[in-house]
Amino acid sequence: MIKKTRNNISRRGLLASGATLAGVLAAPAVARAQATAGRLVIVGGGFGGASAARAARDRYPNIAVTLIEPASQFVTCPYGNLVLAGRSADLAGITHSYDKLVGRGVTKISQEAREIDAAKKTVRTADNQTVAYDRLIVSPGIDLKWDAIKGYDRAASAVMPHCWVPSLQPVTALADKLKAMADGGTFIMVAPPNPFRCPPGPYERASMVAEYFKKAKPKSKILILDAKDGFSKQPLFLDAWKALYGDMIEWVPANKEGKVVAVDPAAMTVETEFGKKHKGDVVNVIPPQQAARIARESGLTGGADWAAIDTRTFEIKSAPGVFVIGDANAAPPMPKSGFVANNTAMRAVAVACSQMTGAAIPNAIYFNTCYSHVGENYGISVVGVYRPNADGTKIDEAPNSGGISAQGATPDIRAGEATYADGWYRSITNYMFG
Amino acid sequence: MTTRLRMVSLGLATAWFASPAQAQMPPVAANGCLGCHGVDGQGANGIPAIMRVQSKADFTATMKLFAENKKPGTIMGRISRGYTDQDIAELAAWFGKP
To answer: A351 to chain B: which residues are within 8 Å by CB?
Structure first.
């Protein structure tokens, strides 16, 4: 089966004539099926988008798969924190190429997607290509809410790095500042309100900085100022911090005046909601978040921060044929994790491709597994098993399942979870990029 | 929207799963296994291989032991309690030795 990939893509000039687009869209499904049963276009090449591309290519050989992603390489958020511990010197181990995905038959358009027209079923790219789709999976990730914390804008992030979106700022920006800090210094982390990308991530990050400090700068302190009163795997993190790092890490919840409302990069201070100022030698601000711009500006979030989805399908009710997966959607109680993005990508692909081919859609079950490294040979986890409710309005946890690792588990179990965390990273990145 | 979600009955789901034409299509519950055990169930870095390692009966028994906390493990007890008997039967058919 030979398919010209440019069949998917019409220059704006061609579309302006109207005839081409009308011809493509009006062609009966049967006629299109001679070459392909349909065109699946995916926006965003992270955990959701790359997984969707792989799943579609493996499982639906008669569907044409196009991935719109500007970058030639993907740097993962997961395992970035290990760079802070000094376990890796650079980003090489967490940087992945799209070449193998392309080798599997995915057409990659290396442009930023700018606008989705759900009525015309097209995506416009930064260089004004118009990409027509039959089904669209949108997995654009997050945007940071600049200025949600007073004074925290792009310029401030050069001084007080966020390192929460690798394509904007790699974790090495924070590692370099920690390396330059003198022993006895204070590292301040400003932790975000829910919901946000990778709920255990800030606390794994604090753990990895503590691992580095314990070896290289043992007189230093870590102060976590939190916009929340609790966090993922909290009892496990608190136990581990005490056991591994003594009183090095202090966590201040919102109800103890932990919520930061303003920063002053020149003074290296952060200010809490009741006016208390803290001065840090290195400050990491993880700001409030929202769905990435293309989801918000194309109307997929309905003016909200995140895209509401049919929980059975990940489809947007107001935009039939458009699915939003990954961190950009609202799918509580599932976390915004790489595992969930990968897992729900398979679901969105199954629904989208079955709609195009006319195949039956099986019932849904979703999973999450999130490992965190807390110290050397010390890993912890949270897992969840989920099902959508009958009318697609919410997601329920399967009874008696899921939850966090046991408190007080043996060192063997903690070491096992650290090893399995590495295995998870290998497996999931192999799924996307191997 | 012309295409509607069609939830298949248990019997149809089994037939769909067992169809040779769909041999490359794992059951939906297997999507959760692949995240750690690998795209082909091959395992990674101490995470055991699960594809064609056990008989279907042994695979089913292993899952039930995990669910009842009778088999030591890290996350599998917490996961296996989320499966229905039908999920486990489909997983055993997919991962078990033929």
So the answer is: 5
Query: Number of residue pairs across A and B with CB atoms under 8 Å?
Result: 130
Whether residue B32 and residue A362 make contact (CB cut-off 8 A), yes or no, is no
Residue B11 lies in a domain: no
Q: Is B39 on the interface with A (CB under 8 A)?
A: yes
Q: Which of A154, A136, A134 minimizes the C-alpha distance to A144? A: A154
How many Cα neighbours within 13 Å face the side chain of A56? 37
Using a CB–CB cutoff of 8 Å, tell me whether B9 touches chain A.
no
Q: Tell me the two tokens of residue B43.
A: 């395992």
Q: Distance between alpha carbon A320 and the CA centroid of its chain, in Å?
A: 24
Q: Please answer yes or no on whether A362 and B28 come within 8 Å at the CB atom.
A: yes
Cβ–Cβ under 8 Å, residues A136 and A121 = yes
CATH number at residue A351: 3.50.50.60
- Diameter of chain B measured on Cα atoms: 49
Domain annotation covers residue A415: no
Kindly determine whether residue A362 and residue B16, on different chains, have CB atoms separated by under 8 Å.
yes
pLDDT tens string, chain A, 434 residues long: the values are 333 333 343 333 333 333 344 334 444 443 333 348 999 999 999 999 999 999 999 999 999 999 999 999 999 999 999 999 999 999 999 999 999 999 999 999 999 999 999 999 999 999 999 999 999 999 999 999 998 999 999 999 999 999 999 999 999 999 999 999 999 999 999 999 999 999 999 999 999 999 999 999 999 999 999 999 999 999 999 999 999 999 999 999 999 999 999 999 999 999 999 999 999 999 999 999 999 999 999 999 999 999 999 999 999 999 999 999 999 999 999 999 999 999 999 999 999 999 999 999 989 999 999 999 999 999 999 999 999 999 999 999 999 999 999 999 999 999 999 999 999 999 999 999 99
Range of the domain at A341: 5-141+292-363
CATH number of residue B71's parent domain = 1.10.760.10
- A394 assigned to some structural domain: no
In a shared domain, residues A154 and A273: yes
* Nearest by Cα to A372 from A228, A266, A258, A237: A237
Residue B38 touches partner A, C-beta closer than 8 Å: yes
What is the spatial distance between Cα A41 and Cα A367, in angstroms, rounded to a whole number?
Answer: 24
